Amino acid sequence: MRHATKRQDRLVTPTVDVRRRRVLLAAAAGAALGAGSYAPFARSNTPLRLVVPYEPGGSADIVGRAAGRWLNERLGRPVIVENKGGAGASLGTEAVVRSPADGNTLLVHTGTIAVEAAAQKKLPYNAQRDLVPVAMVAEGAFALLVNPRVPVNSVAELIEYCKAAPGKYNYASSGIGTSVHLSMELFKSMAGINVMHIPYKGGAPSLNAVASGETEMMMNPLATAKPLGLDGRVRALAVSTKSRTSLWPELPSLDAAGVPGYDTSVWYGLSAPAGTPQDIVEELAATLGASASEPANKTWLNAQGLEPVGDKPAEFKGKIEREIQVWATLIKESGLKLE
């Protein structure tokens, strides 16, 4: 089966306003990080290339372009954001894997990369071997949603409702193997319920399916779930993260609402080709972390239903490895097929 590939490049270049600021930022970052290769890397005129392995306009693209702006502002270097979608995000990922390991090409990805590894898909790369995690930029909760006509008002009631009629009800997702698909399968497994999966071609159609009553329930990122929840088009029961989120504080966590230990999220992070010098990886991580913590950028992320993270490379690597283990266990125990 052939996959159409759409490519969209945009160049972000330093503006007059950032020329003076970039010298101060580079000096400050260099002081924080010590000597090493920061100054030559930051002052290079070679464009940084951020590859988003999805089509333009999606959440990964939006966050990726924000990360590109941040790197441009703080490093003063041109940044090209390239959409290279197709083949379930593997085309763009492979392009980064095959790029020189010099820090100038970065992959913008989501938790789907952990799903790929857990499912042991036949791909032309091994993400754990061929990529180096740089930093998680942002993370957000999913909301567990039901159609308003479903006669439940809590997680406990939904579990009881589903157990009373195994296999009768359906849940929607944005596609097979996506993080919302796996998050719902994990909920099914931990809650001991049997509901059927109906995959749609994207987030909007799947959310509309729940709002219209075509399916009964789903997990969905807060940014798009909350407006429909506040309008009464869907009913939100809980959030997927271990704790409540300040972005929808009225909702309990699934962990507290009847599914102990449940904890999943949507996240966006950057990785580099394996072999990229560690000091450059750490420089990029520190730059992204500093940008994500700026009040204006935090406000922007919150509007997308996300919280800033900006962690260290080792922390990001640990997050990916833990998710791979969770999804691998789920796939093995449930016999889930992701092809």
UniProtKB/TrEMBL annotation:
Q: Which residues form a coiled coil?
A: none
InterPro entries this protein is in? BUG, Bug_dom1, TAT_signal
Q: Which domain of life is it from?
A: Bacteria
Record family assignment: Belongs to the UPF0065 (bug) family.
Give the protein's recorded name: Tripartite tricarboxylate transporter substrate binding protein
- Specify the species: Verticiella sediminum
